Amino acid sequence: MTKSPLVPITDIILNEANPRGIEQDKFEQLQKSLLMFPKMLHLRPVVVDEANIVLGGNMRLRALIAISKMRPAEVNMMLGKCNGYAQKTELERENLRNYWAKWLKAPVVEILHASQLSEEEKREFIIKDNLSYGAWDWDMLANEWEPMELEEWGLDCWQPDNGGEAEGNGSAGSSSESGKHGSLSDKFIAPPFTILDTRQGYWRQRKAMWRERIADFGESREGTLADGETNCMATINNGVSLLDPVMAEIVCRWFGMEGGAAFDCFAGDTVFGYVAATLGMSFTGIELREEQARLNNERVEGMSAHYICDDGQNVAKHIAAGSQDLLFSCPPYYDLEVYSDKPNDASNQPTYEAFLGILENAFANAITCLKQNRFAVIVVGDIRDKEGYYYDFVGDIKRMFKAHGMPLYNECIIVEPIGTLPQRVQRYMRNRKVGKCHQNVLVFYKGDIKAIPTTYNEITYASEDLAAFGMDNNDTTE
Ligand SMILES: C[S@@+](CC[C@H](N)C(=O)[O-])C[C@H]1O[C@@H](n2cnc3c(N)ncnc32)[C@H](O)[C@@H]1O
Question: How are beta strands 370-380 and 324-329 bridged, if at all?
Fold first, then answer.
């Protein structure tokens, strides 16, 4: 085997017989990975046969071809979106930009000629080059690497050892669909099943795009996290939980209405307000902490969303009775995250009962603000008491809403990213506590169920919405 010098990428031929494919989001990850770490290409050259057909490194070559079609400004923009880029020094960033600017003028790749292989050996190599025999040490990964970094580098932290997309939504949400955004997720964002899987490629891709738009990184709530767990089916970002924007989008699309009014009596971050306003709803958030309400208002300036600093129990003082089309809330989960030391902060109450009392006052008042024939969507996860038993917080919320005239209409389980759970679960399992990686999306209804089809339009996910997210809308039939 001889190592060749750099050759123009146009001299290398992609292997049509390569049995491996790549999902769009992974493909972008690969491009980013190469952009951020070009030395990797030197350490792992593309393996070609005597006719320069790729035997190993098809994906890398495809990614390089895609990069070669970009303008330097586009490359710089993509670099800017890479995790870790902002953390580099100005000199390191400049070196990377210069490297790629130069490369774009003459796109080359380092190759390794595997010319002595028989046809049979070539076939064997193509398969074996893609196999992985080792297993990740998830403890070590969780302890010594950042989950965000691992994701950026292409490691599916939530799906050990299968190297691909997570399964779990049945056929319409399975990996084969997730790559091409098949009809159910095209139409409904995610298949409208009782399992909502945030680990799917289409979900992660969409979430990244929303995050980039919203740019709320939870700065105003740093240090509120009580344990490794989070609420609000959130991911940990800088140590605080942030609402998943795709979840917010789904809530607006499925249970809200364009032109309608949405509100939340435990508002927290800007995510829901931002998403609701983007989707044509107005939004009012009641938030107890002044700095959070102020920051939120700055973030949504010019949008049809605003935040009021007050106790959520006073919601009916700010919002007229029977005026709202959607109540959304992801309230504090007792003391899982303590937000402030204010006496009426639900998250710092001396007892679970006192905590529930605040929630019940707020939600009972909120329900009066809703019009007839409308939904309330409450995202909650159960929490354990000091002994370790579950409180049945989810059950308490269901009972609370029913008692105030809104029985349960749907319940979805939202499956969350695994994050550092593999590390923590070792500790939990000493007490036989199973690692919790889901939350409950409770949908309550006020009014006459028969009015739903006439009150709510049929859900059609407009092509311009897909275009805004850079997705094709080639099949919307089901
Ligand atoms: C779980 S967060 C809200 C959800 C939001 N999506 C998030 O992740 O930040 C709960 C919010 O409720 C606020 N809060 C706590 N007690 C409150 C009360 N009595 N009235 C209004 N807001 C309250 C907290 O300050 C916190 O921002």
Answer: parallel
- Residues 121 and 189 both lie in one domain: no
In whole angstroms, give the CA distance from residue 465 to residue 217: 24
Nearest ligand 1 atom to the CA of 311 is 20
Ligand 1, closest atom to CA 346? Answer: 16
Residues 116 and 179 in one domain: no
Atom number, ligand 1, closest to the C-alpha of residue 231: 1
CB 339 near ligand 1, within 6 Å:
yes
Among 79, 106, 128, the domain-final residue is: 128
Same domain for 204 and 80, yes or no, is: no
Categorize the per-residue pLDDT at 140 as very low, low, confident or very high, splitting at 50, 70 and 90.
low
Ligand 1 pocket mutation, candidates 317, 345, 359, 383, criterion most atoms within 8 A of CB:
345
pTM for the model:
0.65
Beta partners for residue 2, in sequence order: 113
- Considering the domain boundaries, does residue 155 fall inside one? no
> Angle at Cα 341 formed by Cα 335 and Cα 346, nearest 5°?
45
Cα–Cα distance measured from residue 122 to residue 134, given in angstroms and rounded to the nearest whole number: 23
Token digits of residue 370: 């809703």
Beta bridge partners of 7: 109
The answer, yes or no, to whether residue 172 has pLDDT greater than 50, is no
**115 and 173 belong to one structural domain:** no
Looking at the structure, do residues 211 and 348 belong to the same domain, yes or no?
yes
More confident site: 325 or 223: 325
pLDDT of amino acid 469: 62
CA–CA separation, 77 and 352 (whole Å): 48
Q: What domain range includes position 98?
A: 2-128
**Rounded to the nearest whole angstrom, what is the distance from the C-alpha of residue 117 to the centroid of ligand 1?**
64
| Ligand 1 binding pocket includes 312 (Cβ within 6 Å) | yes
Q: Do 255 and 375 meet the contact criterion of CB atoms below 8 Å apart?
A: yes
**pLDDT for the residue 200:** 87
d(CA 374, ligand 1 centre) in Å: 23
Q: Pick the atom of ligand 1 nearest to 333's CA.
A: 1
Total number of domains in the chain: 2
The answer to whether the CB of 268 is under 6 A from ligand 1 is: yes
Q: Are residues 120 and 218 in the same domain?
A: no
Same domain, 111 and 182: no
The last residue of one of the domains, among 128, 151, 180, is: 128
Residue 218 lies in a domain: yes
pLDDT, position 175: 36
Is the same domain home to 343 and 219?
Answer: yes
Cβ(287) to ligand 1 under 6 A?
Answer: yes
Q: How far is the CA of 378 from the centre of ligand 1 (A)?
A: 13
Question: Would you say residue 334 lies in a domain?
Answer: yes
Using pLDDT thresholds of 50, 70 and 90, give the confidence band for residue 246: very high
Buried b or exposed e, range 100-109, using 16+ CB within 10 angstroms: beebbeebbb
| pLDDT value for 394 | 98
